Amino acid sequence: MCRPTYYTIAYEINPWMNVQRQANHSRAVRQWEALYALLTRRLNVSVQLLRPVRGLPDLVFTANAGLVWEHTLIRSNFRYPQRQGEEAVIERHFRQRGFQVERLPRTFNFEGEGDALWVGEALLLGFRFRSDAQAHEHLSRLLRCRVLPLELVDRRFYHLDTCFCPLSGTAALWYPKAFDRYGRTVIERCVHDLVEVPRADAMRFACNAIVAHHAVIMQAGVSTRLHRQLARRGFRVKEVDLSEFLKAGGSAKCLVLRLNSPRARAGRSSQRG
């Protein structure tokens, strides 16, 4: 995670961002701290912190930094110049902590865990708005696994993690209308137990959730129906108000990069964020 020291709406690179609808900085800090406290104090998740950098307001959204596999970071190639300055910061941070850093060819855009999520042994890759479909071949070679590209069709759900959230190796939250017909078919074949999120919850970024120790952390105000669907599957919903980050098109998951892949660490009880 990265504290929102310099977080602001400085530009517009997705439909949620509007420089005229500015985030309240002090409120954003309180919201981030509440999420951090929930993870570290109540759920006993170990969290490492990336140092904020002036001029990089979206560095707070660490899920986009890359994809971690064992002790390797596959670093992101950001589509927009406004975020490309984050790449060197991210790479330096991980190298200093002993990670091997891999890069995809610069000709391909890839925005890390924002678009790449594990379900069991398969890696699902969202593409079109931020990541390129061709990245899946390089990821498959690096990770030696099956990578399934999924086309996103609604600009409001510009990253995979805004409309899809793995709950386990066999279950996931999703908003089907964010995908094309083929992508929906791939997900239906890949994931045994799908929880369809209603439109109102999807627009609150309910799918942009963190799963830790049978808790699902998501934006406050989601429907009772979604609470019940998750409870039937043994999950507890932990609501956190992250409304100041929604203004930039992000919520709980966007603020966290997993340092242990569910595939790589299957069966371990401790989690790191």
As a percent range, the share of helical residues equals 25-40%
C-alpha-based Rg, rounded = 17 Å
Shape: globular
Mean pLDDT value:
95
Strand order of the largest sheet: 1-2-3
H/I helix tally: 8
Distance between the termini: 7 Å
What structural class do you assign from the helix and strand content?
A: alpha/beta
The domain count comes to 1
Which architecture does the CATH hierarchy give at level 2? 5-stranded Propeller
Please provide the ordered H/E string of secondary-structure elements.
Answer: HEEHHEEEHEEEHEHEEHEH
Q: So what's the CATH class?
A: Alpha Beta
Q: What is the number of E strands? A: 12
Main sheet summary: 3 strands, mixed
Question: What's the name of the CATH homologous superfamily?
Answer: L-arginine/glycine Amidinotransferase, Chain A
Beta-strand portion reads 15-25%
For this structure, the CATH topology is L-arginine/glycine Amidinotransferase, Chain A
- Note poorly predicted spans: 265-272
